[in-house]
User: Fold this.
Amino acid sequence: MAGAGGSADGDLEAAGLRLSVTGEVATVTLARPERRNAMTGRTWEALAHVGQTLPESVRIVIVTGEGSSFSSGIDLNMFRPGGIEGEVSLTDRIADGSADDAELDALIAHYQEGFRWLRRPDVVSVAAVRGHAIGAGFQLALSCDLRILADDAQLCMKEPALGLVPDLTGTKPLVDLVGPNRAMELCLTARTVSAAEARELRLAELVVESGQLEGAVDDLVAALLAVPREAAAATKELLQGAPGRTLEEQSAAERRAQAARLRALAAQDARG
Ligand code: ACO
Assistant:
């Protein structure tokens, strides 16, 4: 098992993250359990960096949290005067008028990069969620392709209750999974969804007893690794595109993807 190495490990630790890579599997752990894995701007920058520097060998990314919670969301100190030591204080910059709309847009886009890469077709991302996944924590779990929940998981889109909107790429997967009306109900009440309800709402692929979370993740990873990676990547891309296409367009996309696969398999056979 290898960490990110040297000072990179130090940077990740300062951002409240840990990365381990074992062959084809990377595990990203939110690692500020004393703050219930609250995340800051630095956490999201580091997450984006993990995505940009992921070894080519990796095809499965597990995202999990240390301790009793997956993540309590944004570190609330980001909204307090003074902010987080060593980081840009959004509240201060808005209050003193030094951040214009373009800057805010760029800053949020920068933070969103930490979440967007988890959809890349060349990896399958799996959120392993125990305890609370609140706000940005829920959005991080939603950014993953698959979610396994411990039965004590509690999901909450809390942003509207704090006067905000969810802006870390979580609204699209939420609507895709539960539909716009249920998404509205969940967000506009900011209520907490139990693991059992999350399964009913299709927010979780699997719910297991808390003590079996790691084992369930291992089983899923083993099953994912049993499928050839190129076929998995092509299939993920095909499925991701399906909601935005007509049947006609999707049928054509299937033909194109299959032709590429057949050619690749034939070339592989020819090489022996
Ligand atoms: N930001 C900063 N500190 C936090 C956060 C957070 N999001 N969440 C927890 N902490 C701190 C607590 O202040 C506490 O600090 P202390 O030990 O110095 O008192 C410590 O972490 C442990 O938290 P507790 O509340 O004691 O833990 P508990 O297990 O009882 O509750 C829970 C966990 C439910 C997550 C609770 O801490 C909570 O509601 N946190 C705030 C959640 C929130 O509103 N997040 C923002 C969502 S919006 C968004 O993400 C954009």
